[in-house]
Specification:
- With 69 residues, the chain is mostly beta strands.
- 0% of the residues lie in helices and 33% in strands.
- The protein is built from no helices and six strands.
- Strands 4-3-1-6 form a four-stranded antiparallel beta sheet, with no helix packed on it.
- A hairpin with a 4-residue loop joins β3 and β4.
- The radius of gyration is 12 Å and the shape is globular.
- The protein starts with 18 loop residues before the first strand and ends with a strand.
- 4% of the residues are buried.
- The model has no long low-confidence stretch (mean pLDDT 88).
Length: 69
């Protein structure tokens, strides 16, 4: 079994100390491929869509609507 990969939220706006996870594009346990859309985050200025960096199975540890530091 492969090691878990942590998805790091990019710091697009240096003024934001936190972002909000708006929605997941995949469900818990889904198999995802590199480049597949994973989730949307909202900053003070816009919404970004984050893609999977590699193939694997999704384990959701942060529900939609939660603020992430």
């Amino acid at each position: 079994m492969a090691e878990p990969a942590v998805v790091v939220v990019p710091r697009e706006n240096v003024n934001d100390d936190a972002v909000t996870l708006v929605r997941w594009h995949a469900a818990q346990g889904d198999r995802v491929r590199a480049g597949q859309l994973l989730f949307d985050i909202e900053t003070a200025k816009t919404v970004y869509t984050i893609e999977a960096e590699r193939e694997g199975y999704l384990e959701i540890v942060c529900p939609a609507g939660e603020e992430i530091a």
